[in-house]
Design brief:
single chain; three-stranded mixed beta sheet; 15 strands; about 25% helix
């Protein structure tokens, strides 16, 4: 089943401001919140409107969606990133209904930390560490953008140390449990003021939150568990890829010890074509026709990205006229339909003409009531 447009899901116009989008979501959330609505389909509807709000309330995600649709959003953000930063909890507090954290966990099988919401302990721990994202610029041809392609790239990045397998300890030795935090990676401090008791949980200062310490650091990585290496990757370019699009390769960014790798964003750049220009999903081709053809009409053969086509030139065609060849453009990233090729014709004015051509033009001018 094809998913609906985010704007239609929330019932707002494409140019709507953030306040209108938030108001629309509040109204729908109150109607479909699982703690208030037990009807079949309500939970799916709530997921749908929440995803739409998470994207449209964020300028960067909204821009990605407006340009590339859902596919562009899904390629750049995972489920957790998609919802991160949206102010769900404040909305639900204002409405006086259950928070979004538990609902997210129930629907999507995990929460981590997003939108200012954290787990019950208010501490994310080492397992939530994530390496830096990386970017790679890739230039593709018009033909690759039309049909899609696979390209091999090689990137430098921080990877797990091959000598110690990421432990940071010299082979033959091992990490030892930190006595300060007993392997938890965090310490708890209790402060009492009168009848009040305040509990503060912080990163363990001795092991820096790792829960273990190294007696003999690895000589290759000096205890970091990481080394700089180059990795070869294959990038799949979808048909219709355009300038500025980012393709996300999850887990192919820099590694971090005790956590997970960041992502790699491959930024697409379209190599200029000697004959064509691109405008969205459409291809622009500019050419010239002779004065007789413009007046009398005829046929014109033009190149296309995937071959050639013929354009019918009607009599009396003016300079600047644009002819449309349907379906001769780029495929839509939305997954359906193709753009067109737009052929713009101008008049070719010869710099030199023969005596016979001059006589004919002078005769034409006299017939038109002009003095040659």
């Amino acid at each position: 089943m094809e998913k609906r447009d985010y704007y239609d899901v929330l019932g707002v116009q494409k140019g709507s401001g953030k306040d209108d989008i938030k108001a629309a979501y509040r109204k729908l959330a109150l109607q479909y919140h699982p703690d208030r609505n037990r009807e079949p389909g309500a939970a799916e509807k709530f997921k749908e409107i929440s995803e739409a709000y998470a994207v449209l309330s964020d300028d960067e995600k909204r821009g990605q969606y407006d340009q590339f649709g859902r596919q562009g959003v899904y390629e750049r953000y995972n489920r957790e990133d998609l919802f991160r930063g949206a102010d769900f909890d404040s909305i639900f507090r204002d409405l006086g209904i259950g928070g979004f954290g538990g609902i997210f966990e129930r629907f999507f099988g995990g929460l981590g930390s997003y939108g200012g919401f954290q787990g019950s302990e208010g501490f994310e721990g080492r397992g939530s560490l994530r390496g830096d994202d990386l970017a790679f610029d890739l230039e593709i041809t018009f033909e690759e953008a039309l049909r899609g392609a696979s390209r091999d790239i090689e990137i430098p990045r921080l990877s797990e140390c091959r000598t110690c397998n990421g432990s940071g300890a010299q082979p033959g030795s091992s990490r030892k449990t930190c006595r300060e935090c007993n392997g938890r990676g965090r310490v708890q401090k209790v402060r009492r003021t009168g009848f009040a008791q305040f509990v503060q949980i912080t990163t363990c200062p001795k092991c820096n939150g790792e829960g273990s310490i190294i007696d003999k650091p690895c000589r290759n990585c000096h205890g970091s568990g990481l080394e700089r290496a180059r990795k070869k990757l294959q990038v799949k370019i979808p048909p219709g890829a355009d300038e500025g699009q980012s393709l996300r390769l999850r887990g192919e960014g820099n590694m971090v010890q005790g956590g997970r790798a960041g992502d790699l964003y491959v930024r697409i750049h379209l190599k200029p074509h000697p004959e064509f220009k691109r405008q969205g999903d459409n291809v622009i081709y500019e050419t010239r026709i002779s004065f007789p053809k413009a007046v009398l009409g005829g046929e014109l053969e033009v190149p296309c990205i995937d071959g050639r086509a013929r354009v019918k030139i009607p009599p009396g065609t003016r300079a600047g006229t644009v002819f449309r060849l349907e379906g001769k453009g780029f495929p839509s990233l939305e997954g359906w339909g193709k753009g067109d090729e737009l052929v713009r014709v101008d008049l070719a004015i010869p710099q030199e003409i023969s005596r016979k051509q001059r006589e004919l033009l002078e005769e034409f001018a006299r017939e038109a009531g002009e003095k040659p």
